[in-house]
Design brief:
binds magnesium ion; single chain; binds inosinic acid; globular; 3-stranded antiparallel sheet; 3 helices; 184 residues
Length: 184
Amino acid sequence: MSDHVTDAAPGKVLISADEIAQVVSRLGGEISKDYEGQHPILVNLLKGGVVFLADLIRRITIPHHIEFMKVSSYEGGTESSGNVRIIDDLGVPIANRPVLIVEDVVDTGTTLAYILNMLRLRSPQSIEICTLLRKRSSGQAQVPLRYVGAEIPDEYVVGYGLDYNENFRHLPHIATLEFSGEST
Ligand code: IMP
Ligand code: MG
């Protein structure tokens, strides 16, 4: 099979585009209130978090900056490899700045635990996490999640930035993933 062909397809819609918009609006409101006067740096984890970030910042009413980090832990497939790799680091210092990490989904927490430890060494004024989704089983690696958009079952999901082998990021909703040969 060539690279761009996939053995899986989106299945059931778990969170509709309208529901996502409501969640993002609520999170933007909370962040705007909590960070009033602080000028936070929102650190987005590429690539999965990019659609969420783009919508979230348009719901934030206070001044802030955005920065990106590219990390990888899945390397194709649907299981976390447990090995977090930094592919592109932040381009700015974060010492004495309030940092809010903006992530798409927390599954085992391995990725965030690693990034939190790494960024804490740079002495930010504060560091918190905002995740759109959290899997119900999550938390093997304990990470404090200040903002959680929605809880989802422990299933692999795609859409709204989340991919399966780089596919399905463009869906406006969050859907389950079904492999060919599977039926519901
Ligand atoms: P963790 O380290 O197990 O918490 O995995 C977190 C990272 O894996 C997230 O940043 C996502 O990029 C990716 N990931 C985890 N679960 C899913 C999923 O259901 N769909 C797509 N990506 C996922
Ligand atoms: Mg991610």
